[in-house]
Amino acid sequence: MATVEIIQADITTLTVDAVVNAANSALAGGGGVDGAIHRAAGPILDQECRTIRQTRYRSGLPTGAAVATSAGNMPAKWVIHTVGPVWDNSGTQDGLLGTCYTNSINVADEIGATSIAFPTISAGVFAYPLERATRVAVETCLNARPDVVRTILLVAFSAKAERAYNKALKELKG
Q1: Which of 70, 68, 72, 76 is nearest to 15 (CA)?
Q2: What domain of life does the native source organism fall in (predicted)?
Q3: I need a surface site. Which of 41, 45, 114, 159 has the fewest CB within 10 A?
Q4: Which residues are the active-site residues?
């Protein structure tokens, strides 16, 4: 069983096996954590993402799916890209958001990663409410049963996000 830890940090600087990228479907880099990861990893990441788009995901990476690349210049070994749902006020997307975490952990298992660091998927430009996004993340990761992954880091981008993660953890652990 994996341990779930919450930290506030710059995800691009973490020494873990895999860092998860809250990607866009084109795997093209963008704003927020996606842009930061692409900048930190360097041109090799763009090249690998282009190859994936040209060979495996010509129509773009589907929401909830996950795929791995190398981490380029970052201290991590791999980047696992996943596309979170865009918030639409329906309240029906929590399962899809949870799938991003589950599929990323499954990919981490497949590549042999023992540690994985997640940003708060969909809580940036995809406008998912922070408290809801952190609760889905904590709940999904607590319920995960990976074979290889031993450490799951939920990386807060701000003190507010860290508080939201800790609140969810406290509520879910009782």
Answers
A1: 76
A2: Bacteria
A3: 159
A4: 34
pLDDT digits (tens, 9 = 90+) for 37-80: 999 999 999 999 999 999 999 999 999 999 999 999 999 999 99
Residue 151: which H helix or E strand, with range? strand 151-156
Q: Which fold has domain 3-173?
A: Leucine Aminopeptidase, subunit E; domain 1 (3.40.220)
One-letter amino acid for residue 129 of the chain = P
Tokens for 27, please give them. Answer: 């795997």
Q: Copy the structure tokens of residue 85.
A: 């749902």
Output phi, psi for 53, to 5 deg: -65, -35
The first and second tokens of residue 44, run together, are: 């090799």
pLDDT digits over 101-155, tens only?
999 999 999 999 999 999 999 999 899 999 999 999 999 999 999 999 999 999 9
* Global confidence as pTM: 0.96
